[in-house]
Amino acid sequence: MFKNEEMEINLGPQHPSTHGVLRVKLRLDGETVTHCRPMIGYLHRGVEKICENQSFFQGQVWTDRMDYCSAVANNLGWAEANEKLLGITVPRRAQYIRTLLNEFNRIASHLIWLGTHAMDIGALTVFLYAFREREDVLDINEAFCGSRLTTTAFRIGGLREDLPPGFEKMVRKFLAKFSDCLEEYEALLTENRIWKKRTIGVARLSAEDAIALGVTGPMLRAAGVAYDIRKAFPYAAYAEMDFEIPTRTEADTYARYQVRMAEMRQSARIIQQCMDGMPEGPVMAKLPKILRSEVNEVYHATESPKGEIGYYLVGEKGSLNPYRFHVRAPGFINLQSLPKMAEGGLIADVVAAIGSLDIVLGEIDR
Amino acid sequence: MPTPTLTQSIVITFIQCLMVVIFVFVVVPLTVFAERKVLGHLQQRLGSTRVASGHVGFSGWMNRRMWKMGKVPVVSYWRGIPGLVGDVLKLILKEDVIPAKADKFVFFLAPSISMVAAIVVFAAISFVPGTFFTFPTWFPYLGGLPVSGGISDINVGLLWILGVATVGVYGIVLAGWSSNSKYPLLGGLRSAAQMVSYEVPLTLSLLAPVVLSASLNFSEMATRMAVGMPVWALIPQVIGFLLYLTCGFAETNRLPFDMPEAENELVAGFHTEYSGMKFGLFYLAEYINMTVVSALASAFFLGGPWLLPFGLQGLLNPYLPGFLSWFAAPHAIFFVAKIVFLLFTYIWVRGTIPRYRYDQIMAVGWKYLIPLALVNLLLAAAIRCFVV
Hints:
By secondary structure, chain A is an alpha+beta fold.
């Protein structure tokens, strides 16, 4: 008598909780998701192809515009990949400043994630609390490089200039209050019954699946795999820093929340060490007038707030721009795990899963 | 006291209706304004501070000066209020888009059902037992006549309220269905399931006051719950209040139970396809429903027009010294103050906690609230049997 029919529904590309222009094709049986496919490409600009037509210096501005929430981390990867390709050694002071800014960027990115993720699940207030502190981080960005979001913070070979006067005071002021701020967010969420109900056991992604799908970053660490490129293949000044890799074994949305919160604490710790042990010296290496690649190809991976961001550069020896350029974008590869996490759950869980992925479409579509 | 003739009582009822409508249309926009302000301050921002381009005129100049001096302009605290007028104007003047494949008649009907069901409930709500005020003798035609505290304080008042309030769900379901679109359909279905299941614990939690006060008449219940209860009745009153408030949040589709319109999942739920004043009617209905739920909670649990909640007034009154006798009597102002406090609670909760998932809402309703409401009813019955 009754006909049982599955309903196909498009979550996005214009939808409040798909973080930009992600479109997810869902097939629903009532409220249960039986089929889930992310559709991407709405923000494709051809960043990689554009970079192939520009000099090594000019490419960096495009890395800002990939994952615009963690521009500094992208800049760092680009700069280091190019330094490898061009055979340049960066002064120690520049390494420290890069590490410091990179960790600030991790905090800013995680704060955006926290705010939007909590908003997706319905906690409105955390969003504005998190953005309040992010504002301070952006002020620090602005003090250093004059730009808040698309920073283009570094140069190949080091930094454009040294830290501005008053920078240390800003950093110390931020560090002094940040742990209290984190406690404020956690007071609203960590022990909140509804938050726990909405996140514990939701959107599970086991360590095996995560590794098979190439998932990296907090998503992987929340599944119990302590893989962090800052420890595994230290770059910048991370070899000299003392910090821990927070992991959880539950592999659900709540575990990802805990991992990211703990990562923010570790980032503050690294910033403290950078500030205390800041060496003196120049911030820019001696560079030739015209940069020509020394080796043929290079793959350099760094730990961006979202996961492993890898830059694959092919440069014919002696050429002025990369011959081929490819980005291993963490968001793109992490997004592959969405069907695995969302199928079998409810619509509300899809939203929680997208939130816990921490995606930025600028990076996925490039 | 003269007895009114039929015409006179019709005129008085008309005046009462007018007063209630004015009350509703004052409270609702102020709640919207308070929501912006309170939520703003909960989230460390100011909320609405100006009309769209509030840089003109004297106060605009003053605002600019104060911002320049690094201060929050004092005038700006109230300058969001004209914005409400702007909002209403916008809703009325906006183009009313009807989707091509919508069922036009039902699409038109749904917001009216929601709105009417919400506002008609007020017929049985009495703001103060007995006389609200008496017309002065010099008043033409109605001089010396009393005006009661409610439009019609019928002896099945609660039944009327629950019955009519339930009709409101039709508005939402029909809106979801007639839009002929997927998100509204899901929103409408969710809301049907949610509101039907929360109707049960809501009614059960209201049955405890019915049992305790042995009445269905609104003002009689309020009076007995406030001043005629023994100490023991405190327990079912407190439990009942918490239960009722939880269900009330679900009935009015507010966070943490705002499933039908969960914006991060279903865009705008059942009213996704609505625009203009049709959307405005849904919006109004939601806030009127909030006021109704607050009114019931404050009448049956928080002592209604008396000062103290949970029947404490009746325990206190014998000991109250003579010069404080004003506080021993019922006043509409207390009733309204409690409504306002509960409306604030709505906003407060919205700023604090996340949203439940659909299946979790159902689990909470059926597994916890209904059994608890039954236990509470049993408790009330026991107190009714052995104590009262």
